[in-house]
Amino acid sequence: MAFSDHLILDAVLALGGMSARVSEESDIIETRALECYGAAMHQLRIALAAFTPGDDSEAVRLFVATMLLCLHEVCYSFLIMGVMTVY
């Protein structure tokens, strides 16, 4: 799904950047992960505004993107609090 959908791809890349930030503490990786997060949020907002009930495949797509971005938020919160130091 991520190969053919930029929203899902950006959400996956944003989440994937979490582990790189923990282990390498690279500003470049953090910047790119946050760019992907911002792009995914922007695309999600547009997709939600254009959503029409009854389109099951679009509903699944939006659900997957939302769950990935929620997981990113949880992981990022743990990083800020210092709870997660190593995966």
What value does the Rg take, in angstroms? 14 Å
Domain unit count: 1
Shape: elongated
> Span between N and C termini?
25 Å
Number of strands: 0
Helicity range: over 70%
How many separate helices? Answer: 3
Assembly type: single chain
Strand fraction equals under 5%
The low-pLDDT segments are none
Secondary-structure content class: mainly alpha
Q: Secondary-structure element order, as H and E?
A: HHH
- Largest sheet entry: none
Mean pLDDT: 83
How would you describe this structure to a colleague?
- By secondary structure, this protein is mainly alpha-helical.
- It has helices at residues 6-24, 27-50, 56-81.
- It has one domain (6-81).
- Helix 1 (6-24) runs antiparallel to helix 2 (27-50), helix 1 runs parallel beside helix 3 (56-81) and helix 2 (27-50) runs antiparallel to helix 3.
- The model has no long low-confidence stretch (mean pLDDT 83).
What is this structure, in a nutshell?
The protein is 79% helix and 0% strand. The chain has 87 residues and is an all-alpha fold. It contains three helices and no strands.
Features:
elongated, 87 residues, 3 helices
Question: What is this structure's SSE topology?
Answer:
Blueprint: H1 6-24, H2 27-50, H3 56-81
Helix pairs in contact: 1-2, 1-3, 2-3
